[in-house]
Here is the input.
Amino acid sequence: MDEANLVSLLKRKDPKAFELLYDNYSGALYGVILKVLHNKALSEDILQDVFVKIWNNIEQYNTTKGKLYTWIINIARNTAIDKLRSKSYKQEEVNRGIDDTPTLHDHGSFSTKQSTDAIGLGRWVERLKEEHKIIIDLIYFKGYTQSEVAKELEIPLGTVKTRVRSALNHLKELIR
Amino acid sequence: MNVKNYIESGILSLYVLGIATEEEAEEIEQLAATHPEIKQALTELQEAMDHYAAQFEVAPPAHLKEKVLNQLATQTTTSSDDHDPSLSAQGDASLTPLGKRYNPFLVAASYILLALSFLLNIYLYNQWSDSERALALARSEQYDMARSLEVQNTQFTEMEEEIAILKNPNNTIITLQGVEELAPKATATIYWDKSKEEAYIYTASLPAPPAGKQYQLWAVEDDIVWDAGVFDLGLVQEVKCRRKPTQFIITLEKAGGVPKAEGAIYAVGDVQG
Here is the structure.
């Protein structure tokens, strides 16, 4: 089934289409959520929320937002980041203790081994420079602004901006 | 616009990372729809990020699938208009339909401003009309003042002339006394410059002449009486005085004077020395 057909079935709230969506994309969505929150139980709840959001808002999807996959990945990422910034999450984080708290130093180290090989991408991401990977992860998975990245890494804002651009260009080259 | 510069500005990177502003995101989506080069650059970056995200793929626990699908089955389709900011590629960029982009407070505020502007127009128009009326009044007052000033200037000039006459050091001053029967308290004064044979009379204390009548001055030299002219009350007026009179007499005659005295004598005065 091509993407356009899938989208039109999803817009009709076809349960089979949603099952297909789950079978194909739940792993990617769950991976992104885990990458943001580093907490399995919480990430399972968020994954459910994400599918409900897709169900409720699929009418608003159109191709100007990019591919369906891009759209749902962004829903998962934004929902998880919203949770990450919420008061309830910060409270739970205090209760959990700091051991499980995501830090700067675990970028890329959490789930890459079990997943990247499985989907055939190889370890190409390992070839991304560490300075690029840190910036992408802080922005993409933690919702940092460029200014917040500059403050966190103690580097000038101009450097952050330059690295963001070159990081994305480098990533683009890597997947070719 | 320069498409190449736009692509190289790095703005598309911010968009795919989800940190472009709402305005930037809208602009990018519009430009991508109209510029194939931008669309292509954007798609490449999105695919790169999609791949990047995909490498973190983790299969969720098996029991979760049934839970999720069951939950979807209970969703009503009516809740589809809840707008969630997380739907957007931009995080904060809203998917609100075009028709709802206008903040209702701003719309309300704009109507209030329109109404206020309307009221202000009425107020200012009234102010303007009032000003016009005030200006017209002021102009009319100014005109009256100018006329009044002109009159006063004229009067002042006349008074200066009168004073000059009265102050003439060559004058012989003759005072006429009102007669007991008709004007016991009246006086009249004649200022006579013998060197120039000029004479002026002034009186304000004779009874006001009835309509059609006027006072007339007569000069007497020996037994000859001649007409020295008519005059009005309250003004310094020139009278005729060519010879060397020894006495002046005022009678009340018909207006314009008569060649020979007919009326009653009102005042008499002798020339001294």
Notes: The first helix of chain A runs from residue 3 to 11. Chain A touches chain B through 68 residues (CB under 8 Å). The radius of gyration of chain A is 17 Å. The CA atoms of residues 37 and 84 of chain A lie 6 Å apart.
